[in-house]
Amino acid sequence: MSPITKKADIRPAKGKLGVLLPGMGAVATTFIAGVESIRRGHAKPIGSMTQMGTIRLGKRTDNRTPKITEFVPLAGLDDLVFGGWDIFEDSAYESAKHAGVLSNEDLEKVRPFLEGIRPMPGVFEPTYVKKLHGTYIKQGKSKMDMAEQLIADVERFKTTSGVDRCVAVWCGSTEVYREPSDVHMTLAKFEQGLRDSDDNIAPSAIYAYALLRSGVPFANGAPNLSVDFPAIQELAKQKGIPIAGKDFKTGQTLMKTILAPGFKARYLGLEGWYSTNILGNRDGEVLDDPESFKSKEVSKLGVLEHILQPHLYPDLYKDFSHVVRINYYPPRGDNKEGWDSIDIFGWLGYKMQIKIDFLCRDSILAAPIVLDLALYMDLAHRSGMSGIQEWLSFFFKSPMTPEGLYPEHDLFIQLMKLKNTLRHLRGEELITHLGTEYYD
């Protein structure tokens, strides 16, 4: 056990917490409808660490295992107020019906609530999401003008909804792949780029800038170039705001971060891992564009390399083949199917295979992640934490890290880091699983 740390000074979770969602499609509406169903006692918060999870404190013999909600001062579900933006004018109910994730029976139970939630017009640029044609979008003289409109939206939302503070979780579409350019290097260059409507600044980055300017923590649920570049990180530090990302870790990548650590722990070799997906929701339609797929591909491909560390284990993992495919198949809707064909080898090099067919529900897996990120980002802000929140890597396919550090993708190491961060905030011993019984 490590020594007890000093308890952090955490501001209480007083009043209402606004949860702002850029992109109010399948994931966002499934999240909102789910929270309201849980608040009314119609369902349980399955899949949510903050609501279902416990945390061990001290030695195993101490039998101290409170629920996370009892251990750290999180906002309560009854205190959440929802708002956001979209490029279509549909209410949350209409959007949820169109997404087809939840049954009519479940939607009707919360229909009046969902009908009362309408998005604000979104920031949209067709070159960044080529498969969608937004009809409910902001107009402005420049990208800075649109950022200022978003800032005004946040202030209006705070006033009309009566919230005391806000967090934002990106639930919008995957944008085309972009690497950081000169405009992303400093805050001064980025702000000039906004004034000049620089083509390299994505709509998601305009949201990130506006929300940080408004004092709102921002978590990026897509593989977009939104907050993972120096200019936005400079703004986050300057304003003392937490940021996190990127790309929700849901179906196939979740399985990889569970299985790959097991192969490595047992020193089983890997020759190849072939992954293909079919899905028919709006996300699938967007990813049918090669440039948007490139963003998702980069996010997915880095996982195995970082977990298996071929440079340390060349006999097991050097030059393994890793292929990822995503195919748009409208009949499947939000019920994504992921196939994995895994070629491994063991003792004396004898070959084996593992086949996985994961018939998952993408938005059902993502919705509790949105909830947990909203509550943890709010906790981080009230605890005085700012900049990249690496301890939230557990929730992301492509976790952000401070400069010079490689990302940790092993799900179990990520979970240990997250829970140790919570222990640290409350002045509890960090658990290392090194037993004291081995020493006099």
Task: Describe the model.
The chain has 440 residues and is α/β, with parallel strands linked by helices. Helix content is 38%, strand content 15%. Strands 3-2-1-4-5-6-11 form a 7-stranded parallel beta sheet, with helices on both faces. Helix 8 crosses helix 10 and helix 11 runs parallel beside helix 13. The two termini are 15 Å apart.
What brief labels describe this structure?
single chain; 440 residues; alpha/beta; Rossmann fold; Dihydrodipicolinate Reductase, domain 2; 2 domains; seven-stranded parallel beta sheet; four-stranded mixed beta sheet; 16 helices; 11 strands; 38% helix; 15% strand
Strand runs, count:
11
Mean pLDDT: 93
What kind of sheet is the major sheet?
7 strands, parallel
Distance between the termini: 15 Å
CATH class of the largest domain: Alpha Beta
Task: Provide the CATH architecture of the largest domain.
Answer: 3-Layer(aba) Sandwich
CATH topology of the largest domain, what is it called? Rossmann fold
